[in-house]
Amino acid sequence: MTINSCKLVDLPVIKDQRGNLSIIEGLLSIPFEIKRVYYLYDVPGGAERGSHAHKHLEQFIVCISGSFDVVLDDGVESKRFTLNRAHYGLYVCPMMWRYLDNFSSGSVCLVLASEHYSESDYIRDYETFLKLTDR
Ligand code: TYD
User: Fold this and answer.
1) CA distances from 99 to 12, 44, 77, 81, 114 (A)
2) pLDDT number for residue 134
3) Which helix (H) or strand (E) holds 18?
């Protein structure tokens, strides 16, 4: 897996005088079925989240409110994505080191995941991650 497998997806927006509505459908807008949803909120200024990779998990990260950055690293190349619109999401493939920073005050980070929580799927040590990527 390389960083090129990770993509920003512009989600459909249904605009209405009453407000906007965006849609994420498993296996349609994103390449996996959604088994788990979690969200980060009340993130204090200067905090960093993530700093790990997943062996098998696929994720889709959406900035529901405010803004934050997601840095992806495949062991060779790294890219910083700024998320600040609720109709954009970032697809993160397996074996991608990631961290999230620059959270604005009041920001909300929604994460859709392809599997239930499993600590054994995490790689929390960067040197171990580099060894496991055969790049
Ligand atoms: P972690 O995934 O390390 O957070 P982040 O990547 O956002 O910085 O998870 C933080 C803690 O929460 C860790 O102890 C595992 C626990 N956790 C669950 O129990 N279930 C979950 O679905 C998630 C995402 C985390």
Assistant:
1) 26, 15, 14, 11, 19
2) 74
3) none
The SS3 assignment for 119 reads helix
Active site residue 54: no
Reduced to 3 states, what is the DSSP secondary structure of residue 123? strand
Tokens coding 12? 């459909």
pTM comes to 0.97
**DSSP state string for 84-110:** --TTEEEEE-SS-EEEEE-PPTT-EEE
CA atoms of 59 and 130, how far apart (whole Å): 20
CB 55 within 8 A of CB 121: yes
The ligand 1 atom nearest the CA atom of 119? 15
Q: How far apart are CA 101 and CA 37, in angstroms?
A: 20
Question: Largest Cα–Cα distance of the chain, in whole Å?
Answer: 52
The residues of the chain scoring below 50 in pLDDT are none
Taking the CA of residue 117 as reference, the ligand 1 atom at the shortest distance is 22
As for ligand 1, residues whose beta carbon falls within 6 Å of it are: 36, 38, 40, 49-50, 117
